[in-house]
Amino acid sequence: MEHDLAFLAELNNVLIRQIPREANRLADFCAKYGMYHNFLWTDGTLAPSEFSDILQEDLEGMPRV
């Protein structure tokens, strides 16, 4: 299978960072959601409710600085 990688020429910066598994719920949701749906969310109100729920839970669980 041939892949079109032309989009790589447009990337200015890429950051890959290791994070603990328990902090990876939102990325896991996006990966699984992307297997079945095409998506481009330009406004938080357009994201699925599950996305917002996970984000809210993660924000509530963050330590206060």
Q: Could you characterize the architecture of this molecule?
A:
- With 65 residues, the protein is an all-alpha fold.
- Helices cover 38% and strands 0% of the residues.
- It is built from two helices and no strands.
- The protein is extended, with a radius of gyration of 15 Å.
- This is RNase H type-1 domain-containing protein.
In short:
The protein has 65 residues and is mainly α.
Topology of this structure?
Layout (H helix, E strand, L loop, with lengths): L24 H12 L12 H13 L4
Instruction: Give the H and E element order.
Output: HH
What portion of the residues fall into strands of 2 or more residues? under 5%
Overall structural domain count: 1
Helix content: 25-40%
Organism: Platanthera guangdongensis
Protein name: RNase H type-1 domain-containing protein
Which properties best describe this structure?
single chain, about 60 residues, mainly alpha, 2 helices, RNase H type-1 domain-containing protein
